[in-house]
Amino acid sequence: MNIDHRRGITDLYASTRNLSLNICAKISNEDHIVQSMPDVSPPKWHLAHTTWFFETFVLKNFLTDFKPFHEQFEYIFNSYYETVGDFHPRAHRGDLSRPALDEVREYRSHVDQQIHGLFDSGQDDENFLKLIEIGIHHEKQHQELLFMDIKHNLFKNPLYPAYHQHAPHTSPETKPYQWLPIAAGIYEIGASADGSFCYDNEGKRHRVFIEPMEIANRLVTNGEYLNFIEAGGYVRPELWLSEAWNSFKDQPESSPLYWVRQDDKWYEFTLHGLQPLDLNAPVSHVSYYEADAYARWANVRLPTEQEWEVAAQLYDHRDRIFDIDHLYPSAQSDDSFDIMGQLWQWTASAYSPYPGFKAEAGALGEYNGKFMCNQYVLRGGSIASPPNHIRSTYRNFFPSHSQWMFSGIRLAREV
């Protein structure tokens, strides 16, 4: 095992574990147990589940005198790993008033001490390092889920409490689209075998043929989406996929998830509380249905994930900033291509395996492969994606109706 690489993993483990605690430090103890809908998990559960991952997949395999911190934690903090055993139903994680938050923090500290003990002992098994690295990136995913879930929990409170108090944010004026060309041809996409971290669903690297097309240099804004609403976009059946339109009959949709109309004015609930709708900021928290309907209304379309990745290869040169205190998607202020780090962007591609895909052996094989059904791919990361967790090959995925993630719209068109 390379000593520098091992030291880097050790440091990354510590910083990642600390960031989860820092994210939760801004909410109250009571906030840690709220579950506002079945897709949301209480923050306390996230803190425990990410710890369960290291205990179950690392400590259990590499500590000769392993003893679980608590015999029942394997059941209540397992998420969906059927090969590990039974687990508490996702929709009822909010019922877990016990263990108390202090005990969950003690659990994290206990597991961290044992992980660092393995590092200090000179553990040099390659599988150990691989499991630690997967666990770190797994926790990074849950850090974004923490922002998603905390935001939804706070939104359901009629007081509209803020995660972080901050002055209202105003984006610079929206510039017209620049349509960036992609020439017809054969391109390579997917993760390369260069040793850098990726999930199994990002491989294998393979060739795709792209027809000539153009992709927008920026995301659709709130103001542009408001035009869609005011043009009757939500009441025109010809714009909507059948499944979406049929769902409107029971629960009519009229705006993105966090838009609030008060006294004939539009507001948006953000992590900084309820703010006047910023017309120049990218529209966020839209479903695949909404993204698809907007694109059809605008006489264009959504890009495929293959087109999106090729565009990232050709045009993306921006540095991305993560700031836990200022999580606003903001309008582009120059002529560069803002493809990563603003909002996850819906693509027109169903989530399916790449050629040559093979799931990991054992329980970790359940991480991605078994969800390749009834999901669409999103690309690009978001303002809530933690540091060093965004790359052009990253394939996120959600069901078509989902809105609570930090999702936006990028348009594409035929030449």
Automatic annotation (TrEMBL):
Pathway annotation: Amino-acid biosynthesis; ergothioneine biosynthesis
BP terms from Gene Ontology: ergothioneine biosynthetic process
Top-level taxon in the UniProt lineage: Bacteria
Entry keyword Lipid metabolism: no
Domain DinB-like as annotated: residue spans: 15-144
Ranges of residues in domain Sulfatase-modifying factor enzyme-like: 178-330, 337-413
Keywords: Iron, Oxidoreductase
The UniProt record lists the keyword Oxidoreductase: yes
Pfam families noted in UniProt: DinB_2, FGE-sulfatase
Name of the protein this chain belongs to: Ergothioneine biosynthesis protein EgtB
Source organism: Pseudobacteriovorax antillogorgiicola
